[in-house]
């Protein structure tokens, strides 16, 4: 009887050790052993096709890289984005990646994540304090703006009025403006720049701004839009006003390509600066995977080159 009790006690002890070891393995691996890192992502806004395409790139790449991607919508709002970051910290995500559309508003929450030993990655838009960011992946927006500027110069006659629909908050859009102005102001065509206004990411506001601009400047020759929602709003206003203004969009979204190829809309929306949002989502996810596996990334900053689309190459 005594030997039987001793054997039972021994087996219970063995099972206890095995159970504890199993729990410790699951905790210490935190998904690594099974290839499942839990990573929190925040896209700018699912109302914008560009960000839904980034999300598609994230999810496609996450599945291939053993990442459990939890994707949230930042609504282009610094407070909403910061709340998501704080929740990700509380949930002990292995990494966080976001589009920092409000750099100043989200920096405190990003700093909190870093102080909790959670690496932070940014895509599309980043923050001023690069020391807080493990890696940034985005479009070379200054170069994209330059491409838009070259298209503006190509389409406008000497001395013509050319407009800009801008977005004052995201750094990506500020960079596009910078590149565009650099080229347009240095052109020997002496183009007159008309500030159409800040559309704040809202196509309906872009339409109203463009309507007002055409009332004051019915001879506006070209308008450069820092995002496709702005171009869609401008298109509606131009058609309603019966104007002949040419549109240059920026993003390369499906609706932009459709407009370029449309017999009617293609008379107005004639050029597009295209990004590669799915590639951005893919690359940032690959950098997260590499960092979690090795503690290093390929590059601190990874730029994806933009390119020009017209009806000739929009298919």
Question: What can you see in these coordinates?
Answer:
By secondary structure, the protein is α/β, with parallel strands linked by helices. It has 2 domains: 37-138 and 277-304, Response regulator (Rossmann fold), CATH 3.40.50; 141-274, Response regulator (Rossmann fold), CATH 3.40.50.2300. 49% of the residues lie in helices and 20% in strands. The strands form 2 sheets. The protein has a 6-stranded parallel sheet, sandwiched between helices. It has a 6-stranded mixed sheet with strand order 7-6-8-9-10-12, with helices on both faces. The model is unreliable at 1-35 (pLDDT under 50).
Provide a quick synopsis of the model.
This protein has 315 residues and is an alpha/beta fold. It is built from ten helices and twelve strands.
Task: Give short descriptive properties of this protein.
single chain, alpha/beta, 10 helices, six-stranded mixed β-sheet, Rossmann fold, six-stranded parallel β-sheet, 315 residues, disordered N terminus, 2 domains
- Terminal CA distance reads 83 Å
Strand order of the largest sheet: 2-1-3-4-5-11
CATH architecture term of the largest domain: 3-Layer(aba) Sandwich
As a percent range, the share of helical residues equals 40-55%
Q: N-to-C SSE series?
A: HEHEHEHEEHEHEHEHEHEHEE
In the CATH hierarchy, what is the superfamily of the largest domain? Answer: Response regulator
| Secondary-structure content class | alpha/beta
Number of helices: 10
The profile of the biggest β sheet is: 6 strands, parallel
CATH class of the largest domain: Alpha Beta
Model regions low in confidence, pLDDT < 50 over at least 5 residues = 1-35
Q: What's the total number of strands?
A: 12
Query: At the third CATH level, what is the topology name of the largest domain?
Result: Rossmann fold
Percent range for β-strand residues: 15-25%
- Evaluate the radius of gyration: 25 Å
**Domains counted in the coordinates: how many?**
2
Return the average pLDDT rounded to an integer: 90
Oligomer: single chain
Basic shape: elongated
């Amino acid at each position: 009887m005594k030997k039987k009790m001793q054997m039972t006690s021994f087996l219970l002890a063995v099972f206890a050790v095995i159970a504890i070891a199993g729990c410790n393995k699951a905790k210490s691996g935190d998904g690594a052993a099974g290839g499942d890192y839990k990573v929190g992502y925040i896209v700018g806004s699912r109302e914008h096709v560009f960000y839904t395409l980034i999300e598609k790139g994230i999810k496609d790449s996450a599945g291939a890289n053993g990442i459990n991607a939890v994707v949230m919508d930042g609504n282009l709002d610094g407070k909403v984005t910061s709340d998501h970051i704080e929740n990700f910290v509380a949930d002990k995500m292995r990494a966080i990646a976001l589009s920092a559309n409000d750099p100043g508003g989200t920096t405190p929450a990003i700093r909190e994540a870093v102080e909790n030993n959670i690496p932070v990655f940014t895509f599309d838009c980043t923050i001023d304090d690069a020391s807080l960011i493990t890696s940034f992946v985005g479009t070379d927006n200054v170069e994209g703006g330059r491409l838009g500027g070259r298209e503006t110069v190509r389409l406008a006659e000497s001395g013509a009025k050319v407009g800009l629909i801008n977005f004052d908050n995201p750094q990506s859009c500020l960079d596009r403006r910078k590149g565009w102005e650099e080229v347009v102001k240095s052109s020997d065509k002496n183009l007159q720049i008309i500030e159409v206004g800040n559309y704040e990411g809202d196509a309906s506001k872009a339409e109203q701004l463009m309507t007002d601009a055409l009332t004051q400047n019915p001879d506006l020759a070209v308008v450069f839009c820092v995002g496709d929602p702005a171009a869609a709003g401008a298109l509606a206003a131009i058609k309603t006003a019966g104007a002949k203004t040419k549109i240059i969009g920026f993003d390369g979204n499906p609706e932009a390509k459709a407009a370029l190829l449309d017999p009617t809309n293609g008379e107005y929306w004639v050029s597009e600066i295209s990004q590669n949002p799915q590639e951005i989502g893919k690359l940032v996810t690959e950098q997260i995977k590499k960092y979690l596996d090795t503690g290093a990334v390929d590059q601190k900053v990874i730029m994806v080159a933009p390119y020009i689309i017209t009806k000739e190459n929009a298919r």
